[in-house]
């Protein structure tokens, strides 16, 4: 019988948008699994309040490619190569295209699409070189079908689905896994940034009418996907509250 209880240290996991909601819950989950973490978001005080061990926290806007890459380099120098990135940072500004300010469209594509690519690029060359790694992209059920007032948000999440699928084909031969997580409604701060008060109230009423997912539910799905053997890729996980109809 092997009585050696020593286990190898767990590799570095990077999470964007770790200051609230799904990102913060995922940070807790991966930390509990023993991973050192690089946690990124603009509100660094909120990340520090999580009080997680072996964690480097950096105030980074994911639309700044060099800031993302620099933080990853810094964390890798401390904890070794990143084996996982959870590209979770995102914004949802619901509205109608005829009335919505164009800068809201730009922000959604900047953060949800360009920002996600910056995360991918910061870790992917190293993963390819090492012949292993996992990229988990947080999309949405709105990346698979459309909903009222979700036109531009949905467009950004369809982009996440499409790019994730294509990226998976690009890196499959290098041993790198690409996983798309597509949650239905989750109880987080996401809706609070929508500026159209009528649209916000309508979506809030929908959220209040059912028991939506908790951030921890999505974090558990992310942990489950990552913990599969490296030869197994859960290509897409779609999860929603049982009571969510569409
Ligand atoms: P939250 O608003 O609670 O969290 C969003 C996170 O993204 C925050 O940590 C925020 O940090 C970060 N973020 C936003 N903009 C930037 C930026 N420019 N640079 C760096 N970080 C940024 O919402 P959720 O937890 O719900 O959202 C997480 C992901 O889940 C998003 O991609 C969202 O689209 C997706 N999702 C959410 C669903 C839901 O119903 N809640 C359903 C399906 C998908 P900070 O402001 O400190 O920078």
TrEMBL record:
* Superkingdom, taxonomy of origin: Bacteria
Q: Which Pfam families match?
A: adh_short
Q: Keyword check for ATP-binding, yes or no.
A: no
Q: What CDD domains does this protein map onto?
A: SDR_c
Q: What is this protein called?
A: SDR family oxidoreductase
By sequence similarity, the record places it as follows: Belongs to the short-chain dehydrogenases/reductases (SDR) family.
Keywords, A to Z, come to: Oxidoreductase
Q: Which residues form the signal peptide?
A: none
Please name the taxonomic classification of the source: Bacteria, Bacillati, Actinomycetota, Actinomycetes, Kitasatosporales
For the keyword Ubl conjugation, the answer is: no
InterPro entries in alphabetical order: NAD(P)-bd_dom_sf, Sc_DH/Rdtase_CS, SDR_fam
Any GO MF annotation of the entry: oxidoreductase activity
| Listed transmembrane segments | none
Group of enzyme by EC:
oxidoreductase
**Known EC number(s)?**
1.-.-.-
